[in-house]
Amino acid sequence: MKTAIITGATSGIGKATAELLSQKGFRMILCGRRTEVLEQIKTQLSSVTEVYTLNFDQRHLHEVENAFSSLPDSWKNIDVLVNNAGNAHGLEPLSDGNTEDWDAMIDGNVKGLLYVSKCVIPGMKERNSGHIVNISSVAARQTYANGVVYCASKKAVDVISDGMRLELTEFGIKVTNIQPGLVETDFSKVRFKGDEERANAVYQGYKALQPEDIADAISYCINAPKHVAISDLTIYPSVQSEPRTVYKNL
Questions:
Q1: Does Oxidoreductase appear among the keywords (predicted)?
Q2: What's the rounded Cα separation, in Å, for the pair 213 and 217?
Protein backbone atom coordinates (compact mmCIF):
# COMPACT_ATOMS: atom_id res chain seq x y z
CA MET A 1 0.00 0.00 0.00
CA LYS A 2 1.38 3.41 -0.97
CA THR A 3 1.78 6.22 1.55
CA ALA A 4 0.76 9.81 0.82
CA ILE A 5 1.49 12.83 3.00
CA ILE A 6 -0.60 15.98 2.75
CA THR A 7 0.18 19.32 4.37
CA GLY A 8 -2.69 21.61 5.27
CA ALA A 9 -4.91 18.55 5.58
CA THR A 10 -7.43 19.98 8.05
CA SER A 11 -9.61 21.84 5.54
CA GLY A 12 -10.23 22.77 1.92
CA ILE A 13 -8.16 21.14 -0.80
CA GLY A 14 -6.01 19.22 1.67
CA LYS A 15 -8.95 17.60 3.43
CA ALA A 16 -10.74 16.76 0.16
CA THR A 17 -7.55 15.20 -1.20
CA ALA A 18 -7.06 13.13 1.95
CA GLU A 19 -10.62 11.82 1.67
CA LEU A 20 -10.24 10.91 -2.00
CA LEU A 21 -6.81 9.29 -1.76
CA SER A 22 -8.00 7.25 1.21
CA GLN A 23 -10.74 5.86 -0.99
CA LYS A 24 -8.11 5.13 -3.66
CA GLY A 25 -6.19 2.86 -1.27
CA PHE A 26 -3.43 5.15 0.03
CA ARG A 27 -2.23 5.20 3.60
CA MET A 28 -2.37 8.80 4.80
CA ILE A 29 -0.04 11.03 6.79
CA LEU A 30 -2.07 14.14 7.56
CA CYS A 31 -0.28 17.34 8.59
CA GLY A 32 -1.70 20.48 10.12
CA ARG A 33 -1.58 22.96 12.97
CA ARG A 34 -4.97 22.15 14.55
CA THR A 35 -4.54 18.99 16.61
CA GLU A 36 -8.21 18.57 17.41
CA VAL A 37 -9.25 18.80 13.75
CA LEU A 38 -6.47 16.42 12.71
CA GLU A 39 -7.76 13.85 15.18
CA GLN A 40 -11.33 14.27 13.91
CA ILE A 41 -10.23 13.64 10.33
CA LYS A 42 -8.10 10.70 11.46
CA THR A 43 -11.14 9.15 13.13
CA GLN A 44 -13.20 9.74 9.99
CA LEU A 45 -10.68 8.17 7.60
CA SER A 46 -9.45 5.35 9.81
CA SER A 47 -12.50 3.31 8.82
CA VAL A 48 -11.17 3.41 5.25
CA THR A 49 -7.38 3.28 5.56
CA GLU A 50 -4.41 3.61 7.91
CA VAL A 51 -3.87 7.18 9.10
CA TYR A 52 -1.01 8.91 10.92
CA THR A 53 -1.04 12.57 11.93
CA LEU A 54 1.73 15.14 12.33
CA ASN A 55 1.02 18.39 14.14
CA PHE A 56 3.33 21.25 13.16
CA ASP A 57 3.50 24.73 11.67
CA GLN A 58 5.57 24.45 8.52
CA ARG A 59 6.75 28.04 8.84
CA HIS A 60 9.11 26.86 11.60
CA LEU A 61 11.96 24.58 10.53
CA HIS A 62 12.48 23.01 13.95
CA GLU A 63 8.81 21.97 14.13
CA VAL A 64 9.01 20.39 10.68
CA GLU A 65 12.22 18.51 11.45
CA ASN A 66 10.93 17.30 14.83
CA ALA A 67 7.68 16.10 13.29
CA PHE A 68 9.36 14.09 10.54
CA SER A 69 11.92 12.68 12.97
CA SER A 70 9.03 11.35 15.05
CA LEU A 71 7.65 9.22 12.21
CA PRO A 72 7.85 5.49 12.98
CA ASP A 73 10.04 3.51 10.57
CA SER A 74 6.92 1.87 9.11
CA TRP A 75 5.70 5.31 7.94
CA LYS A 76 8.93 6.78 6.59
CA ASN A 77 8.68 5.46 3.01
CA ILE A 78 6.59 8.23 1.50
CA ASP A 79 5.39 7.71 -2.08
CA VAL A 80 3.43 10.93 -2.60
CA LEU A 81 3.91 14.38 -1.10
CA VAL A 82 1.16 16.97 -1.60
CA ASN A 83 2.49 20.38 -0.64
CA ASN A 84 -0.89 21.98 -0.09
CA ALA A 85 -0.45 24.15 3.02
CA GLY A 86 -0.29 27.86 2.33
CA ASN A 87 -1.96 31.14 3.09
CA ALA A 88 -2.92 34.59 1.87
CA HIS A 89 -3.05 37.52 4.27
CA GLY A 90 -4.34 40.98 3.51
CA LEU A 91 -5.26 42.72 0.29
CA GLU A 92 -3.48 46.05 0.44
CA PRO A 93 -0.96 47.84 -1.77
CA LEU A 94 2.70 47.36 -0.86
CA SER A 95 2.89 50.86 0.59
CA ASP A 96 0.25 49.94 3.18
CA GLY A 97 1.18 46.31 3.61
CA ASN A 98 1.57 44.61 6.97
CA THR A 99 5.05 43.09 7.15
CA GLU A 100 3.76 40.36 9.46
CA ASP A 101 1.37 39.35 6.68
CA TRP A 102 4.29 39.28 4.23
CA ASP A 103 6.31 37.07 6.58
CA ALA A 104 3.37 34.69 7.02
CA MET A 105 2.97 34.25 3.26
CA ILE A 106 6.65 33.91 2.42
CA ASP A 107 7.36 31.66 5.40
CA GLY A 108 4.32 29.44 4.78
CA ASN A 109 4.01 29.36 1.01
CA VAL A 110 7.72 29.24 0.15
CA LYS A 111 10.00 28.35 3.05
CA GLY A 112 7.53 25.90 4.58
CA LEU A 113 7.16 24.05 1.28
CA LEU A 114 10.96 23.84 1.07
CA TYR A 115 11.31 22.63 4.66
CA VAL A 116 8.79 19.81 4.19
CA SER A 117 10.18 18.81 0.80
CA LYS A 118 13.72 18.64 2.18
CA CYS A 119 12.54 16.09 4.73
CA VAL A 120 10.81 13.90 2.13
CA ILE A 121 12.99 14.08 -0.98
CA PRO A 122 16.05 12.14 0.29
CA GLY A 123 13.95 9.03 0.91
CA MET A 124 12.38 9.27 -2.53
CA LYS A 125 15.81 9.58 -4.12
CA GLU A 126 17.06 6.52 -2.24
CA ARG A 127 14.11 4.48 -3.55
CA ASN A 128 14.24 6.01 -7.05
CA SER A 129 10.52 6.69 -6.99
CA GLY A 130 7.99 9.18 -5.74
CA HIS A 131 5.65 11.99 -6.74
CA ILE A 132 5.58 15.57 -5.44
CA VAL A 133 2.53 17.74 -6.05
CA ASN A 134 2.92 21.44 -5.31
CA ILE A 135 -0.19 23.61 -5.05
CA SER A 136 0.56 26.95 -6.64
CA SER A 137 -2.10 29.38 -7.92
CA VAL A 138 -3.17 31.23 -11.04
CA ALA A 139 -1.81 34.22 -9.10
CA ALA A 140 1.59 32.96 -10.24
CA ARG A 141 0.56 33.50 -13.85
CA GLN A 142 -0.57 37.10 -13.55
CA THR A 143 0.36 39.49 -10.75
CA TYR A 144 -2.53 41.62 -9.52
CA ALA A 145 -2.58 44.87 -7.57
CA ASN A 146 -2.88 44.60 -3.77
CA GLY A 147 -1.77 40.98 -3.85
CA VAL A 148 1.84 41.41 -4.88
CA VAL A 149 3.49 39.41 -2.09
CA TYR A 150 0.99 36.56 -2.37
CA CYS A 151 1.51 36.44 -6.15
CA ALA A 152 5.28 36.46 -5.66
CA SER A 153 5.09 33.60 -3.17
CA LYS A 154 3.10 31.48 -5.61
CA LYS A 155 5.41 32.37 -8.48
CA ALA A 156 8.18 31.01 -6.27
CA VAL A 157 6.26 27.72 -6.01
CA ASP A 158 6.24 27.52 -9.82
CA VAL A 159 9.98 28.08 -9.95
CA ILE A 160 10.66 25.57 -7.17
CA SER A 161 8.55 23.00 -9.02
CA ASP A 162 10.60 23.56 -12.18
CA GLY A 163 13.80 23.16 -10.19
CA MET A 164 12.59 20.01 -8.49
CA ARG A 165 11.77 18.51 -11.86
CA LEU A 166 15.24 19.30 -13.17
CA GLU A 167 16.88 17.74 -10.14
CA LEU A 168 14.61 14.75 -9.53
CA THR A 169 13.51 13.30 -12.86
CA GLU A 170 16.67 11.20 -13.12
CA PHE A 171 15.68 9.56 -9.82
CA GLY A 172 12.29 8.48 -11.13
CA ILE A 173 10.47 11.17 -9.15
CA LYS A 174 7.59 13.01 -10.81
CA VAL A 175 6.82 16.65 -9.98
CA THR A 176 3.45 18.23 -10.67
CA ASN A 177 2.67 21.91 -10.22
CA ILE A 178 -1.05 22.73 -9.96
CA GLN A 179 -2.40 26.27 -10.37
CA PRO A 180 -6.01 26.51 -9.16
CA GLY A 181 -8.19 29.49 -9.89
CA LEU A 182 -10.94 30.52 -7.49
CA VAL A 183 -11.70 27.64 -5.12
CA GLU A 184 -14.41 27.98 -2.47
CA THR A 185 -12.50 27.27 0.76
CA ASP A 186 -11.50 29.21 3.89
CA PHE A 187 -8.89 30.99 1.74
CA SER A 188 -10.74 34.31 1.63
CA LYS A 189 -11.72 34.09 5.29
CA VAL A 190 -8.02 33.91 6.16
CA ARG A 191 -7.11 36.68 3.71
CA PHE A 192 -9.74 38.97 5.22
CA LYS A 193 -8.81 37.99 8.77
CA GLY A 194 -12.08 36.34 9.72
CA ASP A 195 -14.45 38.83 8.04
CA GLU A 196 -16.98 36.23 6.86
CA GLU A 197 -19.24 38.70 5.07
CA ARG A 198 -16.37 39.99 2.95
CA ALA A 199 -15.04 36.47 2.39
CA ASN A 200 -18.41 35.06 1.34
CA ALA A 201 -18.91 37.91 -1.13
CA VAL A 202 -15.92 36.62 -3.12
CA TYR A 203 -17.86 33.51 -4.14
CA GLN A 204 -21.29 35.03 -4.81
CA GLY A 205 -22.84 35.22 -8.26
CA TYR A 206 -21.01 32.28 -9.84
CA LYS A 207 -19.97 28.68 -9.25
CA ALA A 208 -16.41 28.56 -7.95
CA LEU A 209 -14.24 25.48 -8.06
CA GLN A 210 -14.75 23.15 -5.12
CA PRO A 211 -11.96 21.47 -3.12
CA GLU A 212 -13.09 18.14 -4.55
CA ASP A 213 -12.36 19.40 -8.08
CA ILE A 214 -8.72 19.97 -7.22
CA ALA A 215 -8.57 16.67 -5.33
CA ASP A 216 -9.79 14.91 -8.49
CA ALA A 217 -6.99 16.56 -10.49
CA ILE A 218 -4.37 15.56 -7.94
CA SER A 219 -5.64 11.99 -7.95
CA TYR A 220 -5.49 11.87 -11.75
CA CYS A 221 -1.91 13.15 -11.78
CA ILE A 222 -0.54 10.74 -9.19
CA ASN A 223 -2.41 7.74 -10.58
CA ALA A 224 -1.38 8.32 -14.20
CA PRO A 225 0.62 5.52 -15.88
CA LYS A 226 4.29 5.36 -14.97
CA HIS A 227 5.37 6.77 -18.34
CA VAL A 228 3.04 9.79 -17.99
CA ALA A 229 4.11 12.87 -16.01
CA ILE A 230 1.79 15.86 -15.66
CA SER A 231 4.21 18.73 -15.13
CA ASP A 232 1.86 21.73 -14.91
CA LEU A 233 -1.90 21.98 -14.63
CA THR A 234 -3.99 25.17 -14.53
CA ILE A 235 -7.61 24.85 -13.42
CA TYR A 236 -10.17 27.66 -13.61
CA PRO A 237 -13.87 27.67 -12.84
CA SER A 238 -15.65 27.97 -16.18
CA VAL A 239 -16.53 31.64 -15.56
CA GLN A 240 -12.98 32.78 -14.84
CA SER A 241 -10.84 33.82 -17.81
CA GLU A 242 -7.72 34.95 -15.93
CA PRO A 243 -6.83 35.66 -12.29
CA ARG A 244 -8.58 39.03 -12.16
CA THR A 245 -11.64 38.40 -14.34
CA VAL A 246 -14.76 36.47 -13.30
CA TYR A 247 -18.02 36.68 -15.23
CA LYS A 248 -20.76 36.50 -12.63
CA ASN A 249 -24.42 35.65 -13.10
CA LEU A 250 -23.83 33.83 -16.39
A1: yes
A2: 7
128 neighbors 172 (Cβ within 8 angstroms): yes
Say whether pLDDT at 189 is over 80: no
What ranges make up the beta strands (E) of the chain? 3-6, 27-32, 51-55, 80-83, 130-135, 173-180, 232-235, 240-242, 245-246
Torsion of CA 239, 240, 241, 247, to 10 degrees: 60
User: Residue 181 to residues 63, 111, 139, 222: CA-CA distances in angstroms?
Assistant: 30, 22, 8, 20
Sequence-distant (≥ 6) Cβ neighbours of residue 25 within 8 angstroms: 1, 2, 49
The residues that are catalytic are 150
Domains and CATH numbers, the chain: 3-246 (3.40.50.720)
Arithmetic mean of pLDDT, 237-245: 94
Task: Report pLDDT digits (tens) over 31-85.
Answer: 999 999 999 999 999 999 999 999 999 999 999 999 999 999 999 999 999 999 9
* Strand 240-242 with 245-246, pairing: antiparallel
